[in-house]
TrEMBL record:
Cofactor(s) listed: heme
Positions with a binding annotation for heme: C446
Keyword Transcription regulation set for record: no
GO MF term (any one): heme binding
Signal peptide: none
UniProt family annotation: Belongs to the cytochrome P450 family.
Pfam families, sorted: p450
Annotated PANTHER family: CYTOCHROME P450 77A4, CYTOCHROME P450 98A9
Protein name: Phenylalanine N-monooxygenase
Length: 478
C-alpha cells in the first residue's frame, strides 16, 4: 500500500507541467556563465550576439547565482513592466550603487523598501511637479542663454571658422542646468569669460560620466560578492575615485547651506538644495538628513547629465549629416519663432519636428545598451517562461529601439517616423509602449520624465538650432 501511494504521488507530481526558464547557455556550477562573459567583453555585445544566435527575444543567462534576463521585444517588455510592474519594482544590490547612494539612501538605484518609498514620495511631491518646474524656469533660461553665448563666442572667435566640441557643450549645458537649479550657481570655480566650462566643471562632469560607465557594468563581484575585496576588474577603485571628486565640489556647498539654515541666515528656499533642507516631518523636524540630501543630489545629477547631452549631440550630428533634416528644423524655427528672438520653453510644444528629432535621437542612439535593471520580488511567469525571484531583468535599449519587427529601416535616422502629419500634434519623449526606452514606465519609471524633458528639447531647439545651425557647417568645413 505504501509503495502504491508513493508511485501515485510521484506520478501526480511529475504530471504537473513545469514552466521552463527562458533559453540560454548552460551555466557552470557556482560561477555560471561568468567565464564566457569575461572572455567576450563588452558584456552587452556578447549578450546581444547570444540572443541573435538563439533567435530569441528573451534569454536567461546565469551569472554567479543571479539569473540575468535580457529582453528585446516590446511586447515582452510591457508584460514585465506593465502587467507585472509590482513584481519587478526592485533594483539589484551592486558595488557601484552601494557607493553612489551612500548605502542606499536615494531613489533610482535603491532596492524596493521603506527608504525608496520615502525618497520617492519626496521627489514626486516636492520636486517633480508643475509648480516647481515653473519656479525654476528662470534658472533654466539663464543656462540656455549662456549656452547660446558660449557657442556664439566659439564660432565667432575666429573669422575663418573654428571647431566646436558639441559633446563638451551639450554636457556642460546639462550639468550647468542642474548646478543652477540645485546650487544656484553655474561654476564651482571662477568660470570662463566666454561662458564655457572651467576645469572644475569639466572634472565634475567627467567624474559623473565615469561612475555612470561603471554603474551596472557587469562587475564580477556583483555576482560573486565574496570577490569584492579583490576588486578584480578595478571598478571599485574607479568609482570611489570619481565620487571623491564629486563630493570635493558639492559637499562644502551643502555643508555651508545646512549651517546657514541652522543659524537662521537662510529662511526661504532659493534653489532645490534649499527645498531639500527646508522639508519637515510631522514633528517639525528635518525630514532628510545631511547624508540623504548629499546622496540624493548626487543621484539627481547622474540622472540628468548623460541622456540629454547624448540626445542633443546625436540629433545635431545626424542633422548635419542629412542637410535636408537641418533645413526642415530651421524652417520650423523660422516659422514658429522667427529670427528676432531666441527660442523659449513655451515655444517647444509648437516645434513638433525639433521634438521628433530629439525623440529619434533617443531611439537610434541610446545612451546605454540596457536600461537600469529590474529585480523580481517573487517568482513569476512572464511570456510563458519562469522568472525566479531575484532575477535581474534588462530591457535592451538597442534591441527595442532597433527591432526590425517594430521599426522600418531601424538604423536610419528618420524623425518623420514620429510624426503623423498633423501640424498641431504633440510629440512626447515618453514611450509608454516600450518600443524604445526614454524614461521607462511603471513604479521605476523616471519620476521627472514629463517635468524635466526640456533637457532633451530645449538644448537642441534653443541653443543649437538658432546659433549653431547657422555656424556649424562652415566651421566644420574648415
Amino acid at each position: 500500500m505504501f509503495l502504491v501511494k508513493f508511485v501515485l504521488k510521484t506520478h501526480n507530481k511529475n504530471s504537473v507541467p513545469v514552466v521552463p526558464l527562458p533559453p540560454g547557455p548552460s551555466p557552470w556550477p557556482i560561477v555560471g556563465c561568468l567565464p564566457e562573459m569575461w572572455r567576450n567583453r563588452p558584456a552587452h555585445r556578447w549578450i546581444h550576439s547570444l540572443m541573435k544566435k538563439l533567435n530569441t527575444d528573451i534569454a536567461c543567462i546565469r551569472l554567479g547565482n543571479v539569473h540575468v534576463i535580457p529582453v528585446t521585444s516590446p511586447e515582452i517588455a510591457r508584460e514585465f513592466l506593465k502587467k507585472n510592474d509590482a513584481v519587478f519594482a526592485s533594483r539589484p544590490v551592486t558595488m557601484a550603487t552601494d557607493i553612489l547612494s551612500s548605502g542606499f539612501l536615494t531613489t533610482a538605484v535603491v532596492p524596493w523598501g521603506g527608504q525608496w518609498k520615502k525618497m520617492r514620495k519626496v521627489l514626486i511631491a516636492d520636486l517633480f511637479n508643475h509648480s516647481m518646474v515653473q519656479w525654476l524656469l528662470g534658472k533654466r533660461n539663464e543656462e540656455a542663454d549662456n549656452l547660446v553665448k558660449f557657442l556664439y563666442n566659439q564660432c565667432s572667435s575666429n573669422p575663418n571658422g573654428s571647431v566646436v566640441n558639441v559633446r563638451t557643450a551639450a554636457q556642460f549645458y546639462s550639468g550647468g542646468v542642474m548646478r543652477r537649479m540645485i546650487f544656484n550657481t553655474r561654476y564651482f570655480g571662477k568660470g570662463r569669460k566666454d561662458g564655457g566650462p572651467g576645469f572644475e566643471e569639466e572634472q565634475h562632469v567627467s567624474a559623473i560620466l565615469t561612475i555612470l560607465l561603471h554603474l551596472y557594468a557587469f562587475c564580477v563581484s556583483d555576482y560573486l560578492p565574496w570577490l569584492r575585496v579583490f576588486d578584480i576588474s578595478g571598478h571599485e577603485k574607479k568609482v570611489r575615485g570619481a565620487l571623491k571628486i564629486i563630493k570635493q565640489y558639492q559637499d562644502p556647498l551643502i555643508d555651508e547651506r545646512l549651517k546657514e539654515w541652522r543659524d537662521g541666515r537662510t529662511k526661504e528656499p532659493e534653489d532645490l538644495l534649499d527645498v531639500f533642507i527646508s522639508l519637515k516631518d510631522a514633528n517639525g523636524q528635518p525630514l532628510l538628513s545631511g547624508e540623504e540630501i548629499k546622496a540624493q543630489i548626487t543621484e539627481l545629477q547622474f540622472a540628468t547629465v548623460d541622456n540629454p547631452s547624448n540626445a542633443a549631440e546625436w540629433a545635431l550630428s545626424e542633422m548635419l549629416n542629412q542637410p535636408e533634416l537641418l533645413k526642415k528644423a530651421e524652417e520650423e524655427l523660422d516659422r514658429v519663432v522667427g529670427k528676432q528672438r531666441l527660442v523659449q520653453e513655451s515655444d517647444v510644444p509648437k516645434l513638433p519636428y525639433v521634438r521628433a528629432c530629439a525623440r529619434e535621437a533617443l531611439r537610434r542612439h541610446p545612451v546605454a545598451a540596457f536600461n537600469l535593471p529590474h529585480v523580481s520580488n517573487t517568482d513569476a511567469v512572464v511570456a510563458g517562461y519562469f522568472i525566479p525571484k531575484g532575477s535581474s531583468v534588462l530591457l535592451s535599449r538597442l534591441g527595442l529601439g532597433h527591432n526590425p519587427e517594430v521599426w522600418e529601416n531601424p538604423l536610419r535616422f528618420d524623425p518623420e517616423r514620429h510624426l503623423k502629419g498633423d501640424a498641431d500634434q504633440q510629440v512626447d519623449l515618453e514611450e509608454h509602449e516600450l518600443r524604445f526606452i526614454t524614461f521607462s514606465t511603471g513604479r521605476r519609471g523616471c519620476m521627472g520624465g514629463c517635468a524635466w524633458d526640456y533637457h532633451n528639447y530645449h538644448a537642441p531647439s534653443k541653443a543649437f538650432a538658432r546659433v549653431y545651425l547657422e555656424h556649424a557647417t562652415p566651421c566644420g568645413q574648415d
